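2024-03-11 09:14:02 INFO worker-7 job=invfold-0412 stage=load source=structure_tokens
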């Protein structure tokens, strides 16, 4: 099938063809049934007539006083074109196949071409109907058993012309064929109109969807039909558009925020280098400039690494080195590493860790826990404490980080895992965070087929909880 042919093939044309073929099939089946039923009824009528004639012939064949076999003669009536027409041909044969009596219209003329097998069956007492020919004309006949005056078995054969029946059947066949042709044409026209009516809502949906682009994702597909299936399709497509709009909005915001965050270290780096190159400086001054440039480069590198983790997480390609590990031990190491920073800020970090065996990437999980601890320490007030706990539970392992910070409102809580998100008060830009720590933690946990959640109320701190399957089989490239 060529591409050009495929381009012309449409659902409407296939629907039209299918409905037309279905209608033609039904008409053909109905016409066939009508033809067969009429044929059966006509033949049954002829056969009942033949049976009555044969019984009369048998009853009158030996009614002469001498017992001489004879057949009843009749004048031909209506043989031309009226009704069935009627001209009887009758003969009686004995066991040797000799004609013992026959009507005068068979004398001196070609005989009826009969079947010897049916004659033998009639001699044995079985009557049967069959087609016969004479001078290339078809007759309907009966082989009927009888006995002569001495009780010897005979067979009476009675036939009448089938010309009228065949003519009627031919006329019926022609009428049915003509009706089938006109019916097929009418069915094709009706199917085309119906297919156009049925597919018009689909075309309207496609046209509305085609008008929606990246710049007007707020548009929605209107209801174009009262049919439940099409309304369901419209609803699903509109829900998909809502998700796409949200994804595009998030993506635009992400790109804008990432550009802004990248611009600051790049500008600082460029400004430091430009200032250092404006005039000759001492070695110490160059060293200070290079130190500032290195700090900004490291900041830039960390931001790029964070963005790369998020990008790979979105694509389901976050590489994980999956091994057996203990979530409690990971929490212990993370707390030990950040305790000094907590002491400097006057925040106590308390660990309540139980062994919790899992399978995962210890390095990535440590990164997620570090991000949660850094977030808690950033907003925990001096003199408060951060509580870290782990435990196994129902085939899973969980870790929680609870702080005593200012907390989040219900609105802020819905965006806590959004990239570059900072609450107006609690997550200010000058707090040192870029708004990527929690999204990165979420990406890492979800790559382990786990879940992360946040609970908070204003003035009551935040509690982040990680839940991991104890036999986690993580997505992305993994190595044992």
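2024-03-11 09:14:09 INFO worker-7 stage=emit residues=480
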């Amino acid at each position: 099938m060529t591409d050009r042919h495929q381009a012309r093939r449409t659902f409407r044309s296939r629907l039209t063809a299918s409905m037309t073929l279905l209608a033609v099939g039904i008409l053909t089946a109905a016409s066939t049934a009508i033809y067969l039923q009429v044929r059966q009824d006509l033949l049954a009528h002829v056969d009942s007539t033949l049976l009555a004639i044969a019984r009369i012939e048998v009853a009158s064949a030996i009614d002469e006083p001498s017992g001489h076999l004879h057949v009843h003669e009749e004048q031909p009536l209506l043989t031309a074109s009226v009704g069935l027409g009627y001209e009887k041909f009758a003969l009686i044969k004995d066991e040797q196949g000799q004609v013992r009596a026959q009507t005068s219209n068979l004398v001196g003329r070609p005989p009826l071409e009969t079947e010897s097998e049916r004659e033998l069956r009639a001699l044995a007492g079985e009557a049967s109907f069959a087609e016969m020919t004479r001078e290339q004309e078809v007759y309907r006949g009966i082989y009927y058993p009888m006995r002569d005056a001495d009780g010897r078995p005979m067979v009476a054969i009675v036939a009448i012309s089938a010309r009228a029946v065949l003519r009627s059947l031919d006329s019926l066949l022609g009428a049915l064929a003509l009706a089938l042709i006109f019916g097929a044409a009418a069915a094709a026209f009706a199917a085309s109109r119906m297919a156009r009516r049925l597919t018009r809502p689909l075309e309207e949906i496609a046209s509305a969807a085609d008008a929606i682009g990246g710049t007007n994702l707020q548009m929605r597909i209107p209801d174009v039909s009262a049919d439940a299936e099409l309304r369901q399709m419209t609803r699903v497509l509109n829900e998909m558009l809502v998700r796409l709009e949200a994804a595009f909005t998030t993506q635009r915001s992400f790109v804008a925020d990432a550009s802004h965050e990248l611009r600051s270290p790049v500008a600082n780096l460029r400004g430091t280098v430009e200032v250092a190159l404006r005039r000759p400086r001492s070695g110490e001054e160059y060293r200070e400039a290079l130190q500032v440039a290195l700090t900004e480069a490291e900041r830039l590198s960390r931001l790029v690494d964070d963005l790369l983790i998020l990008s790979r997480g979105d694509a389901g390609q976050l590489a994980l080195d999956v091994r057996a590990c203990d979530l409690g031990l990971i929490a212990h190491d993370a707390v030990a590493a950040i305790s000094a920073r907590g002491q400097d800020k006057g925040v106590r970090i308390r660990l309540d860790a139980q062994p919790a065996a899992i399978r995962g990437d210890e390095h990535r999980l440590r990164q997620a826990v570090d991000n949660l601890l850094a977030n808690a320490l950033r907003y925990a007030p001096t003199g408060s404490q951060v509580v870290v706990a782990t435990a196994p539970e129902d085939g899973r392992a969980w870790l929680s980080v609870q702080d005593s910070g200012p907390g989040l409102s219900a609105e802020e809580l819905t965006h806590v895992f959004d990239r570059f998100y900072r609450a107006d008060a609690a997550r200010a830009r000058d707090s040192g965070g870029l708004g990527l720590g929690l999204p990165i933690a979420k990406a890492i946990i979800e790559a382990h087929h786990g879940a992360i959640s946040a609970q908070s109320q204003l003035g009551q701190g935040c509690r982040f909880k990680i839940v991991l399957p104890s036999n986690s089989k993580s997505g992305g490239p993994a190595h044992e």
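2024-03-11 09:14:09 INFO worker-7 stage=report msg="The longest strand covers residues 137-147."
2024-03-11 09:14:10 INFO worker-7 job finished
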